[in-house]
Amino acid sequence: MSIEEMGDLRHPTKARIAELLESGPAFRSEIIAKAGWPPEEVSYHCSAMQHAGRIRYAGLSGRDAIDPLFELN
What are the structural domain ranges in the chain? Predict the structure, then answer.
């Protein structure tokens, strides 16, 4: 397990996002609905996890997508 992955597990929001993505790709809106957090919080942590290489855009989704699809990297 990398340092970034260990850091993700220590932060409850990032750990929950990783947990939700373990079962497969999910749209940001799905993560928001399942976790019950504000959109800004989910967006921030998804962005941080993506920059750390922990998650990535899935399928044709990308940075400019209104509701990006994420998956574990």
Answer: 3-72
- Percent of the chain beyond pLDDT 90? 70
| CATH architecture, range 3-72 | Orthogonal Bundle (1.10)
- Residues 14 and 35: their CA atoms lie apart, in Å, by 11
What confidence tens digit (pLDDT) does each residue in 46-68 have?
999 999 899 999 987 887 889 99
pTM (global) more than 0.90:
no
